[in-house]
Amino acid sequence: MHKLAGIELGGTKTVVVLGAQGRIDERVEFSTTEPAETLDRAIAVIEGWRDDKPVDAVGIASFGPIRVDRNAADYGSMLDTPKPGWSGAEVVAPVLEALERPVALDTDVNGAALAEHRHGAGQGCESMVYITIGTGIGGGVLINGAPAHGLLHPEIGHVRLRRAAADGFEGACAFHGDCIEGLLSGPALAARFGTHPSRIDPDNPVWEPVAQDLAELLAMLVLTVSPQRIVVGGGVSGRQRHLLPMAIDRVPALLGGYLRDCTRHKLAGMIVPPTLGDDAGPMGALLLAAKAFDAHPIPTPASHLPV
């Protein structure tokens, strides 16, 4: 079986893994700092493994926005991102040059969506959406099991939706103010509450407009993408477990009876937490590595062929 390496490049944390499709054998985590330092460290981890465990291909599941179109002149480069120092950074080129192995790139949320579709909560679904709510908010969309690309890739975190009545919070997104990321991300909640969200009791009424904002996002996805499954992950939703059920409770009213099948019971089975937890992104990166190897297989040296 081919040895694959994956890099989940997150806005806060980078995870480097060695394994195969559906299996993580080794894992190293460290903080995402400036581009050269972060990528050099990820490369060094893989090179260390390669000393005694051949690595056949590498998958990168990265925060963004990042250019994923292989035909674009700036393929593999970061676009204008809120992460300081990363706008314009080359992500694929340093890995490809250092490791000389096939490399595949997609967004971190598309990677997580691929993993949940293949091995987790999205199994058996032709269409699904993976949402992560953490330092930022991202959304990966799969149609017929393949990530949706186009002009760029889905930037669901930056849509602007109807606000909860009488909610005066201005939002915290540097680009759009009160887009969904500016309302629901970890930094946005800290700005909204004036303290870390973990210090706010789940029964506190300040969660009401937050749940309403998340419900607006879920209703929008139901109406626009018509997914069979919406998987909601990330640190905020993982730690604030009351938030997703609160939002689901509000979705039928937002749909206004237009989709009669979308009852509270139906939605509760359709909008779910990730099965793979924190492994979704790294396992997605390994699936991308497998895709890279399938597209550009490395010939087996004659000395390694069976006799």
TrEMBL record:
Entry keywords, A to Z: Magnesium, Metal-binding, Zinc
InterPro entries, A to Z: ATPase_NBD (IPR043129), Carb_Metab_Reg_Kinase/Isom (IPR051804), ROK (IPR000600), ROK_cs (IPR049874)
Pfam families the record matches: ROK
Organism: Novosphingobium panipatense
Enzyme class: transferase
Cofactor(s) the protein requires to work: Mg(2+)
EC number: 2.7.1.4
The protein's name in its UniProt record: fructokinase
Catalysed reaction equations from the record: D-fructose + ATP = D-fructose 6-phosphate + ADP + H(+)
Domain of life the protein comes from: Bacteria
